[in-house]
Amino acid sequence: MANSKARKQKIIKRYDKMSKYYDSLDSGISQASVNRRKLAVKFLNIEPDHLILDVGTGSGVILPVIARKLVTGKVIGIDLSTGMLDKARENIPEEFRGRVELKEDDVEAMSFPDDHFDSLITTYTLTTVPEPRMMMEECYRVLKPGGIFVMLDTGPPSKKHGYPIYWWMRLSAALFGYTFINRRYTDYLHSGFEVIGEERFYGTTVYIVVLRKKG
After folding, report:
1. Higher pLDDT, 25 or 123
2. Full set of structural domains in the chain with CATH
3. Judging by beta carbons within 10 Å of its beta carbon (0-12, 13-18, 19+), is residue 145 exposed, middle or buried?
């Protein structure tokens, strides 16, 4: 546990430092990556009054995409990096600020009550947190029965032709630090979730998986 706390502090420190130039790095992502984020949001099946949680929101790039679909609902973005949350606040257009809330919170020990959210989304968070199983358990806890949980992330490819890309990505992740793209979401999946859809991209190393909470 102490080792997990130490890793978490290193991750927070890294992202606090990166927050100053994170969006400059992110601006170099391809249009295909932008489209995958939009597709992930589409899978949430958002209703205008939904309460939605972005787990590990970072600089909040996905929040306006979600807020645009809400009327009386709200999307909450949580992160442990105060630097990234500050950047997210800068990135929320004025027109959406009434539908977006940002909160410093731990994805492995969330402050929300049980069965609270209509849907959850996470983008590239499973491969970053120190204890992914704890994150998945918390996501199950705060999601309403029948609610949708969409994950966009990277991992080992599902097809052999993806391995050259995967090994290049692992090398990049090792240089970047604290990004574990060798994780398979199926290794951490709570038994109370059912997989209702999965799509693979980029040599099958990038995936969107759609989960539903049973009950």
Report:
1. 123
2. 2-213 (3.40.50.150)
3. exposed
Contact 178, 206 (CB under 8 A): no
- Cα dihedral sign for 183, 196, 206, 48? negative
Would you state the structure tokens that stand for residue 54, as one six-digit string? 């972005």
Q: Is 73 helix (H, G, I), strand (E, B) or coil?
A: coil
DSSP-assigned beta bridge partners for residue 154: 206
Residues 42, 113: Cα–Cα separation, whole Å: 26
pLDDT band at 4 (very low <50, low <70, confident <90, very high): confident
Task: Determine the pLDDT at residue 49.
Answer: 98
Distance CA(211)–CA(33), nearest Å, equals 21
SS3 103: strand
Of the candidates 31, 15, 50, 53, the one whose C-alpha atom is nearest the C-alpha of residue 135 is 53
Residue pLDDT, tens place only, 145-165 = 999 999 999 999 999 999 999
**194 secondary structure, DSSP code:** E
How many angstroms separate the CA atoms of 36 and 208, rounded? 8
Which helix (H) or strand (E) segment holds residue 78: the answer is: strand 74-79
Judged against a pLDDT cut of 90, whether residue 205 lies above it is answered with yes
In sign, the C-alpha dihedral spanning 42, 200, 156, 202 is negative
**Is residue 96 exposed (0-12), middle (13-18) or buried (19+ Cβ within 10 Å)?**
middle
Mean local confidence (pLDDT), 168-188: 84
